Each structure stands twice: as C-alpha cells, then as structure tokens.
Amino acid sequence: MAARLGLALRLHHGEAIALGPGKADLLVAIAETGSIAAAARALGLSYRRAWVMVETINASFAEPLVAASKGGGGGGGTRLTPAGTMVLARYRAMVAAALAAAEPDATALLALLR
Fold first, then answer.
1. Residue 16: what pLDDT?
2. CA–CA separation, 90 vs 85, rounded Å?
3. Which of 20, 61, 83, 85 has its CB 3.0 to 4.6 Å from that of 10, i.e. a possible disulfide?
4. Nearest to 40 by CA among 56, 21, 58, 27
5. Contact at 8 Å (CB) between 11 and 91?
6. What is the pLDDT of residues 9-22, one digit of tens each?
7. What is the per-residue pLDDT across 82-111, written as a single tens digit (0 to 9) for each?
8. Using CA atoms, how far apart are residues 70 and 47, in angstroms rounded to an integer?
9. Which pLDDT score is estimated for 74?
10. Which residues have a Cβ under 8 Å from the Cβ of 67 and sit 6 or more positions away?
11. Model-level pTM?
12. Where are the alpha helices (DSSP H) in the chain?
C-alpha cells in the first residue's frame, strides 16, 4: 500500500460548505458535459443530490457559478458562468499551493509510516 498525502480544503459559508472537493468535481463535470444530469451520472450522484449541491454553490457566492437553461427545441443545458470558471480555477490553485506547502512535512511524516 503506497502512502500519500491527501488534503480536502473546504470553503465554508455560514453552515454550508460553499466549495470543497466534491463540489469542485461537480463543477468540472458540468463544464465537461453541459448538463447537471450527465455530470451527476459521471460522478455517481443522484440528480437530486447534484442539484442541491449546485443550489448551495450558487446561494453561497455573490453571483451564480452555474447557469441552467430550460429545455426547448434545442434542449436545455447547464454551464459554468465566468465567475464559476474563475472560482474553480482559484480553488484548484489553492489546493495545489496547499499540497506544495505541505510536501516537506508530509514527506517526513510519510517516511515514518510502516
């Protein structure tokens, strides 16, 4: 079994988790699929759970990170807003910086494991 460091950074807004690893993964899946339903399927989530996560994300930030359009002749769709793209990029950068900062101590601690 290989030892490794894993960090889970979460941005709290009141009682809610505005953004964390699962919500970031959902944002990536929405950007890739253009659909909350397809993103939920790709992540093994129920559509309801994914929708609640999107509602929490959108309610937590000053402007929505995810925009959904209703179906019609061309069908509906979901996309990240410019704010959503920026927030996701900053979150990913923050995670990378935290991992880099923790690496020296993590290496020392991991060396002490069986």
1. 96
2. 9
3. 20
4. 27
5. yes
6. 999 999 999 999 99
7. 999 999 999 999 999 999 999 999 999 999
8. 16
9. 63
10. 78, 79, 80, 81
11. 0.89
12. 21-33, 36-43, 47-60, 82-110
- CATH numbers and ranges of domains, the chain: 11-110 (1.10.10.10)
Given a contact cutoff of 8 angstroms between Cβ atoms, the answer to whether 31 and 80 are in contact is: yes
- At residue 51's C-alpha, the angle toward residues 45 and 56, to 5°, is 115
Asked if 19 and 57 count as a contact pair (C-beta separation under 8 A), the reply is yes
Spatial separation of the C-alpha atoms in residues 91 and 22, rounded to whole Å: 12
Has residue 71 got a pLDDT over 80? no
Judging by DSSP bridges, how do beta strands 16-19 and 11-13 pair with one another? Answer: antiparallel
Cβ neighbours, 10 Å, residue 72: 7
Task: Assess contact for 107 and 3: CB atoms under 8 A.
Answer: no
Q: Which residues pair with 77 in a beta bridge?
A: 69
Which amino acid would we find at residue 104?
Answer: P
Beta bridge partners of residue 66, listed in sequence order? 80
